[in-house]
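Incident review: delayed structure delivery

Summary: a single-chain prediction request sat in the queue longer than the usual turnaround. Root cause was a stuck worker, restarted by the on-call engineer. No data loss occurred. The affected request and its eventual output are reproduced below so the record is complete for anyone auditing the incident later.

Affected input:
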Amino acid sequence: MQFPRLNLPCLLLLGLQLLVCADPFPQGVNQILNTMGQKLAQLDESVEDDAGKISQLKKQAAAELEESLADEAAIREVQDAAFAKVHLRVQQQIFLGGCPRTFEGCPQGWQLDGSSTCQPPADYDGTCAAFRLLDFSSKADKEELALKCRLTWPCEDACAKDFASCPDQWTNIEGLCLAPKSYAGMCSPATDFSAFSSTQKIQWAELCFAPWPCQ
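Output delivered after worker restart:
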């Protein structure tokens, strides 16, 4: 049996047709590659999501830290203000309280020289130097000096108090006692004492640094 002879051009054309029609990869490989591509895309999206979440967490942590520092600063400010108020109250009690002060002449233990200057004693451990009396003539000036320099003036001689009126230097306006502008005590500058007993007025005067005048 003889086969028909095929010339070379026909063979080449047949080979090209086979190459064009044939699948260059084994069956199923394309699907595997597509699946891998989808998973890689999902991984990329996951990485981007994680980066966004990390950035958000950093911002949230920074905001919480800033808020915490602000709260601590506010607490310290309140504590400092409370300490300053208590410290001032103690200083007032030591150098101004306990009794009405005379504020005449030099503080206790200080000596007045020929130039009207108060000279400190040798054991004075405060922060102030000698001062001229004429530079601190008013009661308010001397009260401020007493607190600043840790000075005490003698107590006034005891006298019968006039509890029918307002505290010393306070003004009576239709039964309401109003403090002078120089008042720096801790109590209300406008007080009605009509319901106060004599004992209550004495206690109030000591607490509020506002004594009653003598009769």
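Verification: Residues 29-95 form the longest helix (67 residues).
Action items: add queue-age alerting; document worker restart procedure.
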